[in-house]
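ZP: hey, is the adenosine-5'-diphosphate complex queued? I don't see it on the tracker
AM: it wasn't, my bad. submitting now with these inputs:
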Amino acid sequence: MEALVAADLSKTYSGARGRVEALDRVSLSIAPGQLFAFLGRNGAGKTTFIKICSTLLIPTSGHAELFGLDVVERAREVRERIAIVPQEGRPFFHLTPREHVEEYLRVRGASGESARSRADEVLAAMGLRGFANEPAYRLSGGLQQRTLVAMILATEAPFLFLDEPTLGMDPFARRQVWQVIRHATQRGSTVLLTTHYLDEAEQLAQELAVIEGGHILYRGTPEALKSRVHREVRLQFDSGFTVPELRPYGEVFEERGRLTLLTTRSVVPELTRRALERERPIHVGPVTLEEAFLALVGRGIEDEVDPEGGP
Ligand SMILES: Nc1ncnc2c1ncn2[C@@H]1O[C@H](COP(=O)(O)OP(=O)(O)O)[C@@H](O)[C@H]1O
Ligand SMILES: [Mg+2]
């Protein structure tokens, strides 16, 4: 049985700004034990999808089942099997990280002793031991976010929804969170993660879906998405080269004065030689998931689809 099955899920919000079709017949399944990443620019529909699948929002049409349980009809049973890091969640001001983790486990039915030892374990793994007894209002934003993630991951619920869990964290904290997420899947949890950090998706996800304007554009492995770029290497030039000069070699993008060229391996020696002749730096690396993602959804913020304007 699949951990999550969504079939033709649609959601239309009606508000002061009119109707917004946030999801348009999205179908998706996630196998048990998988770490699945949901990618897409702001407003693509990721949070709406998570809210519906985690029983927080009723779909306009379509169905979703979690471990075979309809998320609307059997919401109570679904809730026993899930835990959620909501987007832009905040901890309770006066509770400490330890209280967050322990009390939440207690509410979910753990004994005092097991909640305590589980809290110790998770707080240590998340680098929160030194802050465990500080009230949340004294913690930095990154530590507050880590507290929420610790509280949810500690549950080891069969299905974990993590909506931008590493937002605002430094690179060290992110890596600790990755470890704990990996650990949760090793213990059998299924994870649906959204993130704007493409390196994070590349590190963690076995499969991913890219959503744009309420539609799934891609579903598959990160490797398969990268291979769709049909380019092997990424060259970057800080200065000394122009777009017209590089265009014959592949796709060129200019971002904040830096030129990126996606191309084949065979041209690397020639362009490296030219850069050296001009005494200019050149950076050579593999095509990343970020490049593949941008190739799929478009690079410009102005490409953002207008949800009210149709496709
Ligand atoms: N409560 C709401 N009322 C009206 N529109 C909403 C509401 N929540 C989200 N939207 C709109 O639905 C679309 C999808 O939003 P969301 O699911 O939050 O996307 P994402 O998480 O990918 O950024 C956006 O156009 C957003 O403005
Ligand atoms: Mg969101």
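AM: back. Residues 13, 15, 20, 22, 40, 42-48, 307 surround adenosine-5'-diphosphate (ligand 1) (CB under 6 Å).
ZP: great, adding it to the tracker
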